[in-house]
Design a protein that fits this description.
alpha/beta, Rossmann fold
Length: 231
């Protein structure tokens, strides 16, 4: 987890080492527009950006005077040390250990979460515990933006790094698991790209966020549901 706070120039300098070429598709995002409006003009907010580190995102939020925590949960979930055998004898991921090492903010200290399409690519046994942790760390009234693929996207739907391009537009940079240091490097190198683990329908998504106070769906043109949730 990396915290970025300060002037846009300072944050950009720190972030450049964590990002590569950023050219990609640009599209409008109704969900992002609603997310931006939900934040309003408040100052000194705390934002969790739970994807690969994005210099434009850091620059955008620190320019508004916000604290930004950048944490790549999808890559962290690949740590071989998390692998275990479940009660049914099948391979599983140790969700308790995962949450002890990630998303360690104190309860009710976060104003907003950008979790992108992480849930579609993450090991299924981690999804509900991670959503539960979002509820815990968000302040009452806090906002969360998530993307979910529809069945028309197909199992080979590419995984993207999402860069903010203003209040309601995104640049999409296709990614695969990047090589990392330590135990995760070998696991990352075994994969040429992320693959959809499942497709959540509206009922499944509503069930994931059933403890939240409200949920809105927006259907994007690229077979993605954009979901805005309020704690």
């Amino acid at each position: 987890m990396r915290l970025f706070r300060g002037s846009p120039a300072e944050s950009e300098q720190h972030a450049q080492t964590a990002t590569g070429p950023r050219a990609g598709l640009v599209r409008r995002s109704t969900g992002l527009g609603e997310f931006t409006r939900a934040l309003g003009k408040a100052e000194d907010l705390c934002i969790l950006d739970l994807g690969p580190t994005s210099a434009p995102n850091i620059r955008h939020f620190t320019g508004l005077g916000y604290k930004v925590y950048s944490e790549d949960l999808l890559l962290a979930s690949m740590d071989p040390a998390l692998k275990m055998t479940g009660e049914d004898g099948k391979p599983a991921v140790d969700s308790k250990r995962f949450l002890s090492e990630n998303l360690t903010q104190q309860p009710a200290t976060v104003d907003a979460v950008l979790c992108w399409d992480m849930a579609d690519y993450m090991e299924e046994s981690l999804v509900k515990p991670v959503i539960g942790r979002f509820w815990s760390v968000l302040k009452p009234g806090g906002v969360l933006l998530a993307f979910f693929h529809t069945k028309d996207a197909g199992p080979d739907a590419p995984c993207y790094r999402y860069h903010l391009k203003g209040d309601d537009a995104l640049e999409l940079q296709r990614i695969g698991p990047a090589a990392d240091s330590g135990a995760r490097k070998a696991a990352a190198n075994e994969n040429s790209g992320w693959r959809l683990q499942r497709v959540f329908n509206n009922r499944h998504i509503e069930n994931l966020f059933r403890d939240f106070s409200s949920i809105k769906f927006f259907l994007a043109r690229d077979n993605v549901r954009e979901v805005l949730v309020i704690r």
